[in-house]
């Protein structure tokens, strides 16, 4: 038994046409407007940040207030990883990029 067992399904290629891979400008604006109309919650604001910056989910969840610099630049330097250990426990940790 190896240290890391991966399913072959994880590596199958799923083909999508370009129109199915990204939101249109109109769709982005609808999503942002909907989120702004609702009571702001951190998860909803995270969706806006991800849409506008392209930050990935793991990078988004690893962000800390100190990653926002005084000049308005957001420094993405780590990502959060999640995996199952050999005992079946879910392990969550940060990884430097």
Summarize the structure.
With 97 residues, this protein is α+β, with helices and mostly antiparallel strands.
Q: Helical proportion?
A: 25-40%
Report the C-alpha radius of gyration, rounded.
17 Å
**Low-confidence region ranges:** none
Number of strands: 2
Beta-strand level of the residues, as a percent range?
5-15%
Major beta sheet, strand line-up = 1-2
Q: What distance lies between the first and last C-alpha atoms, to the nearest angstrom?
A: 29 Å
Shape: extended
Described by strand count, sense and barrel closure, the largest sheet is: 2 strands, antiparallel
The helix-and-strand class reads alpha+beta
Order of helix and strand elements from N to C terminus: HHHHEE
Q: Helix tally?
A: 4
Mean pLDDT: 83
Describe this protein's structure:
The chain is of the alpha+beta class. Helices cover 36% and strands 14% of the residues. It contains 4 helices and 2 strands, in the order ααααββ. A two-stranded antiparallel sheet has the order 1-2. A hairpin with a 5-residue loop joins strand 1 and strand 2. Helix 2 packs antiparallel against helix 3. The chain is extended.
Secondary-structure map with pairings?
Blueprint (H helix, E strand, L loop, with lengths): L17 H4 L3 H13 L4 H12 L3 H6 L15 E7 L5 E7 L1
Antiparallel strand pairs: 1-2
Helix pairs in contact: 2-3
């Amino acid at each position: 038994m190896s240290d890391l067992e991966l399913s072959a399904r994880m590596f199958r290629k799923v083909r999508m046409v370009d129109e199915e891979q990204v939101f249109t400008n109109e769709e982005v604006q609808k999503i942002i407007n909907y989120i702004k109309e609702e009571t702001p919650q951190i998860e909803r604001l995270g969706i806006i940040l991800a849409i506008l910056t392209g930050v990935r989910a793991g990078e988004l969840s690893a962000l800390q207030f100190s990653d926002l610099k005084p000049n308005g630049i957001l420094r993405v330097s780590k990502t959060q990883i999640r995996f199952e250990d050999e005992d079946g426990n879910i392990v969550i940790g940060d990884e430097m990029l």
